[in-house]
Fold:
Amino acid sequence: MKRTSTWASRLTALSTTAIALLLLQRLTHPLTSSSVVLVVAIAVAGIGAAVKMTLHNCFESHLMVSLVAGATLVGTLLSVTLGLPGAERADLGPVHGALIALPVVALGLQNADARLQRRLRGERSRRTYAS
Structure:
């Protein structure tokens, strides 16, 4: 179901695009082959989710943004704390910091968008005394 586009949904699409671009930047560093496949899959899903969010702002786009943000957040936290399978623990650098912060921002913006959508829905269904 298509919903109206809000400032929060546009910023969510922007933050998801930033996540995807940072993940693609990670491909310049040596990764195991399984990590490369995961990073590419999440980056492509992130770009698709951002485009879908920009065009339709629907349930599916919110679901994809949540999955991309969650996978990025969990993967980055695992990479920084324990290390990914077949690789050593990574140092916490600016890119890792951004890959931790951006998913949290995207999820927060989705919450703000949901609140705005509920408010808009309530204003549209509110009746005046004369009608």
